[in-house]
Amino acid sequence: MNKAKDNKENIVEEQVDATQTETAEGTETVEMTAEEKLKEELGQEKDKFLRLFAEFENYKKRTSKERVELFQTASKDVMVSLLPILDDFDRAYSEISKTEEKDLLKGVELISQKLKTTLTQKGLSEMEVKAGDVFDADFHQAVTQIPAPSEDLKGKIVDVIEKGYKLGETVIRFPKVVTGQ
Q1: pLDDT tens, 42-77?
Q2: Dist. CA 68–CA 172, nearest whole Å
Q3: Strands of 141-146's sheet in order across
Q4: How many C-alpha atoms does 46 have within 13 Å on its Cβ side?
Q5: What is the pTM (predicted TM-score) of this model?
Q6: What is the phi/psi pair of residue 171, to 5°?
Q7: Those residues with Cβ within 8 angstroms of residue 36's Cβ, 6 or more apart along the chain or in another chain
Q8: Tens of pLDDT along 20-43?
Q9: Cβ-Cβ contacts under 8 Å for 173 (sequence gap 6 or more)
């Protein structure tokens, strides 16, 4: 019986050793899984952070661009409201230049130049359009068409009725022209 008892004890010890080995291997597997899980969570958090950072950078760029556009739009409204005054100065200058009063002409010219210089400093520029230029619907507004006085003016600008202006690169008033057909 002692032999049987010793065999039972050996078998029990072997089973315990096997269980401990399995547990140790299982623990390693669980630890590896936990480590991998932590690495995966870290990767996900890094991804979230990078996406959030990129979204914030886009937000900063967008708000900066909107702010610049707001300032341009604000000045655009003021510039558009001043364009009729520029037109009136041009008409006054052309009428006063017909008179003999040179002092009056000089006064109107000085005020007109000062206004134009100030507006030019703020980004306003006159669009260069003259009779004989090719008509382009993207940059000119045709008010009417008349029979061309000569063959070379067909499809071209015959007369400029109202000047056009740009604010920076944006056209704020298209030149009004008469075209020849």
Answers
A1: 999 999 999 999 999 999 999 999 988 887 777 888
A2: 17
A3: 141-146, 176-180, 157-162
A4: 6
A5: 0.60
A6: -75, 120
A7: none
A8: 444 444 444 556 688 899 999 999
A9: 80, 83, 162, 163, 164, 165
